[in-house]
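Record type: monomer structure entry
Structure origin: computed from sequence
Chain ID: A
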Amino acid sequence: MKAALLAFGTLGLLAPAPAVLPPIPATTPGGLPSDAKDQQPLLLGRATPQAILAHRAVFKDNLAKVKVSPGLRARWKALRQPFTLVAVFGSWCGDSHLQLPELLALEAEPNPFIEVHYLGVNRDKLLDPGVWPKGCAPQEVLRVPTFYLFATRPGGFQKYMGAVVENPPRAGQTMAEALVELLETATQAL
């Protein structure tokens, strides 16, 4: 069989190689990194809540729709263990457009024990290890958004405690609820 396939290959009967997709353009006309799909600038690396909300209207529009119950806000504010929460998102990603505003709504009333970092990625989901917060081991990003939780230990060491990947783990659960539960579970585990 192998000999027959080799013979067909020499006769030119193999299917032509698939066309190579064009590379993602490096920049928009204004010089910012952009996405080939919609030619919108990308938010890459470290970002602030203000930059995220100003970047694309969909983040601001979805934040306006988020309703965090007073009980959930109280649970968020009651956390007293130092944590670092790293939100890796794609400014091009529909799931990020829906889920990231949930964290932004929680963080509207900051908890001094929870340090939140936002890291934007391209479609390849690769991050320079240098953008991760100090003491947090860089994690492999397979889907966005992914919310990585680290417990701050004495001496600035960060212990990985878990993550919520792309969507809340339970049907009907909001991302804000999933993140507060992750923090509470991590607190109990310490």
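Annotation 1: The chain has a mean pLDDT of 85.
Annotation 2: The chain has one domain: 45-189.
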